[in-house]
Each structure stands twice: as structure tokens, then as C-alpha cells.
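Hi L.,

You mentioned the student needs an example of a multi-chain input paired with its predicted structure. This one should do, with 261 residues in total across all chains.
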Amino acid sequence: MTQADKLLGRWLNTNHETRGIAECTVARDGDSINVSIVGVGEDGPIQWPTVEAMALANLEEEGGQKTGVLLATFELGFMRAETHMRVNKGVFVIVLFATFLDDSGRANYVNREFFYKP
Amino acid sequence: MSEQRFAQICDLVETEPIRDRDIDRGALIGNWINSNPDTNSIARVKVFEADGKLQLQAFAVGPDGFIDWGTTTADVFAAGPASRTGAGVAATFNLRFAEVRLQAMIMKGLLVLAQFHLFKDDSGRTSYFMREYYAKTHELFNQ
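Structure written out for the whole complex:
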């Protein structure tokens, strides 16, 4: 099992009231690792386009954990979401750096959410 | 069909236009020192403004002292799409043999720095990730 294999699977947000990412699925496709995200929408879930992630070795983490890290960028037209994902003590963590590409005046922002494997 | 404006409902906000320079960078600006004195990676980070842009300078541990990576322009990120509080930065250092992408967040007064080291040479070294913690110091970084 590689470090990245520990990231595979379907992960649900620990916060059921989230207004951000509801769930994330990490799947292997040959030598590639693909990431799918479902955002919380007004009238139901919003499926983001599936993207291929870059897997990196996790050199150091608290407690000597080594679960690998994924880098994935989602181009959503109005927004670019640059994310990295890792598992810390069994919790899947997504850190998202959002850059708005439209003229909405919204601030680029960073957010972090936590996920569990059901 | 209306133009897509959000992919998660937290982004559905109405706000007066927030420009980069409107975001308060006070929490980000400063000299940051690695909480781990035994680190073999980035020991110090200097975050400052020049010409209205946020700049980031990194000093890594070398065999004979610190290695100054130089300065690169950083992107500033707020705490939310309607926030004017700076909460994170992202920057990339091109070191010829490697590209190092940095993504940092302020958490509980610490700068939590995610580092993505991507080797570009033919050394065969594996690209890797590190995450380290930095505390703001009044120490001046001459080197």
C-alpha cells in the first residue's frame, strides 16, 4: 500500500451544517488519482468537475504519520480552487485556497474542512 | 441559464468590491521563526509589503548556515469571500532544480506552512510535502 492509498475512498464532511464541501471521493485510475468534490448548493448538491491530483510523499507529520498528500486544482470558471488534502489521525483534511476570476468583488479566501470515512 | 457564480453556498455572498489591498494583512506581516529548532527545511519566513504587494522571503537550513531563497510575490487570502481579514498566503519559489509551492494559514497566532517540494532536475528525488509551524518573532532577519 502506498502513502496515497490511505487517502482513497469517499469522505463526508464532519460538519453536517457545512455551506462548503459536502463530500469528497478519491479514486485510483491506473497510475492516476482522481478527486471528485460535491459542494453544498441552494437546491441540492453541486458536483464539481473531477480532476487528477498530484500525489506527494508526506515527509513529516505529527506522530510520525505518513499518509501522503494530494494537490488538486479545480477550474470552475468563475473561481479557481487550489486544494491540498491529507489524512491526520484518521481525519481527511481539505485546505482550499479560492481565487475568484469573475468581477463579483468577492475576496479570495482560504478555508479548511474536515471529513470522515462513513 | 444564469451564469454560475458559486459551487458551494458559502460563496453566495453579496459584498462591496474587495480588492487585494482592502484585505488587512497585519496578522500575516512579520518575521516568522520555525517552532522546531531541529528543522532541516525552512527555518525562517519574512512576510512584508513592497509596492502594495505582499512579499515572502524564505531562509532554509543549509550545511553552513541559512540559505536565502530570495523574495517572491505572494497572493493574499481572506478568511472568507466577504471578509477583509487576511488569513492566508500562497507563493511559489523557483529554485531551478526544484519548485517549492507554499500555502500558509494563520491558526491560533501561528503561521502553518504547507510546503510542496517538486523536483525538476534528473536527480530522481521524490517530490514531497511538509507542514511546519512558525511563531512571529521580533527578531530581525539580517540573514
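You could point out the following to them. Residues 95 and 112 of chain A are 4 Å apart (CA to CA). Chain A has a mean pLDDT of 93.

Best wishes,
N.
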